[in-house]
Amino acid sequence: MKSVVKVSKTVEEAIDIALKELGVSVKDVRVDIIEEPSRGLFGIIGTKDATVKVTVINDPVEIAENFLNKLLLSMNIKGNALVRREDSCLNIDIINTSPSDMGIIIGKRGNTLDAIQYLLSLSVNKDRDDYIKVLVDIKGYRKKREETLIRLANRMAEKTKYNKRPVKLEPMNPYERRIIHSALQHVNGIATYSEGEEPYRRVVIQAK
Question: Which of 97, 106, 107, 138 could lock onto 111 through a cystine, CB 3.0 to 4.6 A?
């Protein structure tokens, strides 16, 4: 477990300095007050600052790294997890993988990558009061997939405008369906809605 010792005028200031250095929230640590601040003679001579030891006991970055590295090992895939925390979100990139392993990790239409993200989110948020959003990507796949879906949405919108018939897209997960809906929400003469049950729920594009 990572820990730091910090000294400042008050206990609160010392804790805050430690949290910033460790990159965690106060809910993720244990605080041991080594020395309380005190005023010396006449409030000047012999004044002592506060000293605290802050130990990380529930680091979501460490949890994510350990979980994903063990998962890749169990899948017999060479790779590493690069985890960055930004407030209440973990952005995770899977790096140092071969092209063939990359295909295995992504799976058909990103299904395996989504499953990894889901399992990792469960692990990170276990026993947490404050939810942390987990996003897993590999070599920019999600951005490329988003761009592909937007192009598909616009192409199918033009098709349905031309022949006046609804177009039913292939089944997609909720995240990808939202991309389609968002891409077409301001397109004149086009409406979108979802139909079916998970995991076969799909977007329908139709002319108004």
Answer: 107
Q: How many CA atoms lie within 13 A of 60 on its CB side?
A: 30
**Which amino acid would we find at residue 64?**
A
Q: Where are the alpha helices (DSSP H) in the chain?
A: 11-22, 60-74, 99-106, 111-125, 141-163, 174-184
CB 161 within 8 A of CB 207: yes
pLDDT digits (tens, 9 = 90+) for 152-163: 999 999 999 999
Find out whether 80 and 95 touch, Cβ atoms under 8 Å: yes
Per DSSP, helices labelled H in 33-167 are: 60-74, 99-106, 111-125, 141-163
List the one residue out of 182, 191, 180 whose CA is nearest residue 153. Answer: 180
Q: Which two tokens stand for residue 203?
A: 């977007």
Cα distance between residue 18 and residue 9, in whole Å? 14
